Amino acid sequence: MQVVIQGFGNVGSNAALLMMEHGYKIVGVAEKDGGLYNPNGIDIPPACEYKYRNGTTLGFRGAEATPSEELIVTDCDLLIPAATENVITSRNADRIKARIIVEGANGPPPLSPMKFSPRNASSSCRTFSPTPARHSQLFEWVQDRQGYFWKEAIVNEQLETILRDSFDDVVRYAEAHNVNNRIAAYMLAIDRVAFTIKQRGIYA
User: Fold this and answer.
1) How many C-beta atoms lie closer than 10 Å to residue 2's C-beta?
2) How far apart are CA 146 and CA 15, in angstroms?
3) What share of the chain is helix, strand, coil (3-state, %, to 5)?
4) Average pLDDT over residues 44-60
5) Helices (H) and strands (E) in the chain, counts
6) Which of 1, 71, 163, 184 could be joined to 30 by an S-S link, Cβ 3.0–4.6 Å?
């Protein structure tokens, strides 16, 4: 699968490394000062090292310099907004060709309906918000409370289990209520909060 990642900081670069390890092809990296494109896939470890040494991806020889705004609408399987907010708006949504958008930025696209390109006309572009950082913060809090710290492999295993289960729950909820994944995630969250409040006997 071909992937374009917007942002190459902590979220974007680590997502790129992990996805490359699992066989994904990172064809584009969009940064605020310019982007990189290689249809055969960018070699991510050297790109990360270059960014660390130079503070930018500009000048990296393993890909062609390409305007970031072009990369956002490049034909790909996955688009991952992982840095600057509001990169997907009503001005470019109709040109986005990604089959799936995986939200990694602090400010995800707005909930208002947006029209996507003809490639997505039949099945529509699907969006997901994994939010692994929040679970990582929870794990840190639990370890601090216990005064006992887990190995990295244990944290990664627990994180993967939570994300997989959450993903499956949202997809099932979306199918059951005939809504998109984004709306389903909000509906499911509200249902769970309401159920917990009712169980505790707290009423507004």
Assistant:
1) 18
2) 29
3) 45, 15, 40
4) 95
5) 6, 7
6) 71
For residue 184, CA distances in Å to 9, 50, 129, 178, 180 come to 29, 40, 11, 9, 6
Query: What is the rounded distance in angstroms from the CA atom of residue 138 to the CA atom of residue 141?
Result: 5
For CA atoms 158, 85, 34, 28, the dihedral sign is: positive
The Cα 84–Cα 7 span in angstroms is 7
Highest mean pLDDT among 17-21, 116-120, 197-201: 17-21
The answer to whether residue 140 scores a pLDDT higher than 70 is yes
Average confidence (pLDDT) over 98-102: 88
143-172 per-position pLDDT tens digit? 888 888 888 888 888 888 988 999 899 999
Instruction: Identify whether the C-beta of residue 71 lies closer than 8 Å to the C-beta of residue 97.
Output: no
Amino acid at 110: P
The structure's pTM equals 0.73
Q: How far apart are CA 134 and CA 110, in angstroms?
A: 20
